[in-house]
Specification:
The protein is α+β, with helices and mostly antiparallel strands. The protein contains ten helices and 19 strands.
């Protein structure tokens, strides 16, 4: 029996996915739960497994094509079975990305029929996924002119045609080459071969060899400078953060936190075999404070406000091609040790690319910690659907006044970004100071450990 392999739908917001790699080819034997192909989604690259035993009879959708979910991408059956004559699904339209809007100057910096195949997650990697720009009007070029330009490794785009209707003819190409000093160019055979193969216009390349000789490395540098499509992950990041900045009026509140005593206590805990991180203490402080300030754990569509009874903490995690926000569910109910275990597990899965879609959705408040990157202060963009995000900077030795004397303390700045549609300045100030107060309260941490 011939069975269809379909593009899985992973969550409600996913309309299409891109097949970035087929692991099998037509004629290969496949078994149930064997990985067939990899797809790129908004969040990661996922491995799709087969529901059937048999032979891969036909691939309908090739690599690199954005395909609607639930569309047939391949057929599995017994060798020799007739495959249904189904046309490939039309390529999915690229989601529109809002054009940049010029807001008031800020210091904002960036900080989610047939049975569906089973899905596992692998490491996110960049793949072209943006829709190609509309091609320019084709220039009329004679065959001899095109061959001369191609063999010379130059583009005809800048050549003015003198033939009928502005057609570029051979003499136009020769005149263009003479005007550009092409005959005096020095280029290694390997560099020219690479330029021909990759269709690099040799006249746009600056040679770095002796007397301006164009080397292979110069061609490779030119190739690296070519525009490339953003991965789907980067497109979604751009879309969501632009949406956030445009729709949510951000304002920022920063307070310094004296971490001296907490860092000493953390060292004591480590000697006892409890290796809590600064992130653990920050997340616990945020979770406790969100219970006290429910407005900070709410969301709005611009017309209504919704309070969330549970604290689902997102922690922004950087990856090679973007970032993801793993979510700690019901953080308000977790002990410090349980929260630490959740952080370690989710961070490890994020780094290994094994986060499931459900583990990256549904956050009600996010923490972005760049303390390990030697950052004195920064602001973060609110994750759409939340009312705020906390930016955590590095702990820095700082002179402060204590009891009329200047002393050196370990100070960490935290900056709260708030959605002014929901949060007023006074609420934001009290909330961020509540976090500060908890981080500086050693008795609190002794009671929690």
């Amino acid at each position: 029996m011939v069975n269809a392999i379909i593009m899985p739908k992973l969550n409600q917001s996913e309309d299409d996915c891109i097949i970035v790699k087929w692991r099998v080819k037509p004629g290969d034997k496949v078994k149930k739960n064997e990985i067939l192909f990899e797809i790129e989604t908004e969040k990661a690259v996922l491995e799709v497994e087969s529901f059937y035993d048999g032979t891969l009879l036909k691939i309908v959708v090739p690599e690199g094509v954005a395909t609607p979910v639930n569309a047939t991408v391949a057929w599995v059956g017994e060798p020799g079975e007739k495959v249904p004559d189904v046309a490939p699904p039309p390529p999915a339209a690229a989601a529109p990305i809002p054009a940049p809007v010029a807001p008031a100057a800020t210091k904002t910096q960036t900080a989610a029929a047939a049975p569906v195949a089973a899905v596992a997650v692998t490491a996110p990697v960049p793949f072209p996924s943006a829709a190609a720009p509309a091609p320019a009007r084709r220039q009329a070029v004679s065959p001899r002119a095109r061959a001369l330009a191609r063999n010379s490794a130059v583009s005809t785009d800048s050549i003015r045609g003198t033939g009928p209707g502005g057609r570029v003819v051979e003499k136009d190409v020769r005149a263009y080459l003479d005007s550009k000093g092409y005959g005096q160019l020095r280029i290694t055979p390997a560099a020219k071969a690479l330029a021909l193969r990759e269709k690099v216009d040799i006249l746009t390349v600056r040679g770095t060899g002796d007397s301006g000789r164009i080397m292979t490395g110069d061609i490779e540098r030119s190739l690296r400078e070519r525009p490339r499509a953003l991965s789907k992950m980067r497109q979604i990041i751009a879309q969501r953060l632009t949406q956030s900045v445009v729709t949510a009026p951000h304002f920022f509140v920063t307070v310094p936190v004296d971490m001296t005593d907490l860092l000493k206590f953390r060292h004591v805990l480590k000697t006892r075999g409890a290796p809590f991180s600064v992130t653990d203490f920050v997340l616990e402080s945020v979770a406790l404070s969100l219970v006290e300030f429910p407005a900070m754990n709410s969301s709005t569509d611009g017309k209504t406000a919704r309070w969330h009874s549970a604290v689902h903490l997102g922690m922004a995690t950087s990856l090679e091609d973007g970032l993801v926000v793993p979510v700690i569910r019901n953080a308000q109910d977790l002990s410090l040790a349980e929260l630490h275990a959740a952080v370690v597990a989710l961070a490890g899965k994020a780094r290994d690319g094994k986060l499931l879609p459900d583990e990256m959705t549904g956050s009600t408040f996010t923490v972005s910690n760049m303390g390990m990157l030697n950052i004195e202060n920064f602001t973060a963009i609110i994750n759409p659907g939340e009312s705020g995000i906390l930016a955590v900077s590095s702990t820095v030795q700082t002179p402060v006044v204590r009891d009329g004397r200047i002393v050196v303390r370990e100070v960490m700045k935290i900056t709260l970004s708030s959605d002014h549609r929901l949060i007023d300045g006074a609420v934001a100030a009290r909330f961020v100071n509540a976090i500060k107060s908890k981080l500086e309260d050693i008795n609190l941490w002794k009671s929690l450990t």
